[in-house]
Amino acid sequence: MARLRLARTVGIGPLTFSKFMSTYQSGTDAIKALPDRANAAGRRNIRLADQAQIEEEIRATEEIGGRILLNTDSDYPTLLRELAPSPPVITVLGDLAQARKPCIAMVGARNASAAGMRLANTIANDLGSEGYTVVSGLARGIDTAAHNGALETGTIAVIAGGIDNIYPPQNAGLRDLIAKNGLVLTESPFGHEPRAKDFPRRNRLITGLSLGVVVVEAAQRSGSLISARCAAEQGRDVMAVPGSPLDPRTRGSNGLIRSGAALVESARDILEVLSPQPKGETGRLLELKGDDFEDDDATEPDAEAQTQILKSLSPTPISLADLSRATSLPIRQCTTALVELELAGLAVSLPGGLVQRTV
Q1: Which helix (H) or strand (E) element contains residue 104?
Q2: Could you report the per-residue pLDDT of 126-155, keeping only the tens digit for each?
């Protein structure tokens, strides 16, 4: 309960949650330390999430058959846990065993062509037959085709809203089938209505769960390209299905291939790209993990480092690796400084090792 309360507190992002749990070990101790840490960072108005609201979230989630998982729980998905930092809380509905199988993400255009949807359905079905779980975002078009193709063998729908929220409404029936035969997963609390800023976070979960991502039809500046960038930042394989240069729906996916994404046209092609990683392994780990995020009592907040980092941040999210390169500061020093900046309300950390300035 205490850990969930800390994770749901406004101003406590994945990075700060991870650092607090590493430092204080228990949610209760972390909550006790929060006011002093926030005051020291110059923020005196931080308010813990209301306990009654947390209790209601747990009750409502369990009432529909869902579960709330913290990244410290043993059955939290392995690949998500390896992200640096990992999402502190996810809510799941359905068969959690789907997340323990090797997963492959499939994303693409909402206004997909009939040929693109047929191909996505076929590839997803073939991947399922090979023992893989297909992960997508329950959107119209390619997402819907991929989920339908893998429905019998196992699929995960990652959504932007609360676990009780069905979006888009026309996929209500598909969402119910996935909850029965597969898994629905979200980072948002129960009852949350999805907003535009929630979808990039959803995309990071889609790729974070997966060994690689396959893009089938994507226009330029599309959400699918955000997913591809997330996958690359997370160390996942990026693959794309080629399309006609005359179709604007494939300009983004064709551009990915020109930029180095693997060209794939079938499930066999996808498995060849992933072949260095046998099924059942946890996949590539992020470059930013392990010792870079262990607690180090000798690392103290550095005012000069905080100032330097704040100057380098903007409202556009960047990775910790890019921030480290931009400031010439070690990742561990960046992490320590960012916790203080987040407590001060000046920065926010996002799942997948991204950070941004808030003001």
Answers
A1: strand 103-108
A2: 999 999 999 999 999 999 999 999 999 999
